[in-house]
Design goal:
By secondary structure, the chain is α/β, with parallel strands linked by helices. The protein is built from 12 helices and 12 strands. It starts with a helix and ends in a 9-residue tail after the last strand.
């Protein structure tokens, strides 16, 4: 196997010059750079990434843990993280914690043992935040993404409470007083914040909260469908509008409405947080609060890079990006 000494002899330069060309650590003359690159090709030299990492005390790798990689929002966040990491020369090690606190804890330990240079974590609903704190105490930078709170670390997410409040007040403006919320698991911080926005809107509109209209549970589509059927069927005080707190709960609501033979928005007005890719293609179009998921991931990675290279030394930062609400026919708007 060719060594850096073989490359240096063939190119007629020192090993340090070869290192500068390969690693881009110092400018060299164009003629010299071309000779070194030709010598690398001719000798078949391969850089020993592990040895280089040990010398630099870096592995040029980032750990990314998401609670459900199949969710469109998390998939977009992962792409944002990967784009920024790749541009900076880092490899992303992606792990899916599957909403399992035990699995998340094991993944954190494994990635820390692999000496990743930093971690971006979208925690599970009942995350053991002390596990993240332990990684931070070991000196590994961590950025918490999407589900904020509970740990003293850099965090990047979206505004949840105010946009949900405005969404519910919009339904009130359309004349609705019986508005249900397909919340899902309120142990998830983002869901808890969106529920808070729902409650604030009802209070502002002078509408008494009816806990029977707040559908909780795992947040999975199948369970949401079953619970929404109980809310919609055979009740004189059934809701005239439903707002969903996530893509999964939105699916459950729409399935339940279809099973009940209810048309949207004629029988049941509908709006959702997160929603679906290409929501404008649905008929009727679905009113949606779309979070900038890709930008959340990119911002989280940028923040992590600043911690790794030492340009950010202040106390932990919390960044909230603004979502974009698009009103379409499902809530009763004429588009």
């Amino acid at each position: 196997m060719a060594t850096i000494n073989d490359v240096a002899r063939r190119a007629g330069v020192s090993t340090s010059t070869v290192s500068h060309v390969i690693n881009g650590t110092r400018p060299v003359r164009e003629e010299t750079r071309l000779r070194v690159e030709e010598a690398v090709r001719a000798t078949g030299y391969k850089r020993d990434g592990l040895a280089r990492a040990l010398r630099r005390n870096r592995t040029d790798s980032i750990g990314l843990i998401v609670s459900d990689v199949s969710e469109p929002a998390f998939a977009a966040m992962a792409r944002g993280v990967e784009r920024e990491a790749t541009a900076a020369g880092y490899t992303v090690l992606l792990a899916n914690s599957a909403e399992d606190p035990e699995l998340e804890a094991r993944i954190l330990q494994v990635l820390a043992e692999r000496r990743v240079d930093g971690l971006v974590v979208a925690p599970v609903a009942r995350s053991r935040r002390e596990e993240i704190t332990a990684v931070l105490d070991q000196g590994t930078p961590v950025v918490v993404m999407d589900r904020l709170g509970g740990v003293r670390a850099d965090q990047v997410g979206v505004e949840n409470t105010a946009p949900m409040r405005e969404l519910v007040l919009h339904l009130v403006a359309h004349g609705h007083r019986r508005i249900a919320l397909a919340a899902g698991d309120i142990a998830v911080p983002t869901i808890a914040e969106r529920r808070r926005g729902y409650l604030e809107a009802l209070g502002e509109a002078g509408i008494e909260v009816d806990d029977r209209l707040v559908v909780r549970g795992s947040g999975l589509a199948g369970e949401t469908r079953e619970r929404m059927l109980e809310v919609l069927r055979g009740r004189p005080d059934a809701p005239t509008a439903v707002v969903a707190a996530s893509t999964e709960t939105a699916v459950g609501v729409l399935e339940a409405a279809r099973e009940c033979g209810m048309a949207t928005p004629g029988d049941l007005a509908f709006a959702t947080f997160d929603g679906f890719p290409h929501a404008d293609l649905f008929r009727p179009g679905i009113t949606t609060v779309a979070q900038p998921a890709h930008d959340i991931g990119a911002t989280a990675m940028q923040l992590l890079l600043s911690r790794i290279d030492g340009t950010l030394t202040a106390r932990h930062r919390s960044i909230r990006l603004d979502p974009e609400t698009t009103y379409r026919e499902s809530c009763g708007c004429t588009v």
